[in-house]
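Reviewer comment 2.1 asked that we show a complete input and output for one of the modelled complexes. We chose the S-adenosyl-L-homocysteine case, as it is the one discussed in the main text.
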Amino acid sequence: MDRESLLRSLGARLSDERVLSAIAAVPRERFVPPSLSTAAYHDTPLRIGHGQTISQPAVVARMCELLELAPTDRVLDVGTGSGYHAAVLSRMCQHVFGIEIEEQLALRASRSLLRAGIDNVTVTHGDGASGLPEQAPFEAINVAATAAGQVPAALEQQLAVGGRLVAPVATSQGECLVLVRRLPGGLRREQLDAVRFVALR
Ligand code: SAH
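Response of the prediction step:
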């Protein structure tokens, strides 16, 4: 698949035009290893080293839609990996705070983002399961690695009132996306699509 066909195929399934524009604005080939650049516009995850993968474009698109981003939002991205998902998020918000547990990936993501001309993402090396309390609260939190049982409480606690969080969660029923909203009265959690991500460590 090439870039045009990927955008056409995603466009047919997306209801939020801004998400499609954000995906169209990010050169995915800059976030995959050079040996895979010809596969950059296939709608599949790809290996990025250290046993990790860059997320599938259709899944990135779906998660971005669920986050209903506004241009003034500050977003936390847990499991930044290649930096691709963070780059797409950055086109729809004010700033993305990425956190990645593999130091080499965190460094590489920072470089790829800079080379792609993206200057509103900062990537920190660390354990994203505890979030980034010094920058909280966030209007949106995106998690790209599967938590066992439930969304880590530290992440839910770092959501602003009105904030949205999307994360893959594995339970005895399987693995699915969970959408959490912090309403004035408390948290509301919804289980959505079946997905497959690497495990949150
Ligand atoms: N969003 C990424 C997908 C990366 S795959 C992209 O677009 O490329 C998930 C990533 O989560 C991996 O890079 C893995 O190293 C990272 N990860 C796993 N557990 C983590 C944790 N506790 N804190 C931060 N990152 C974690």
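Residues 1 and 42 are 5 Å apart (CA to CA). We note this here for comparison with the apo prediction described in Section 3.2.
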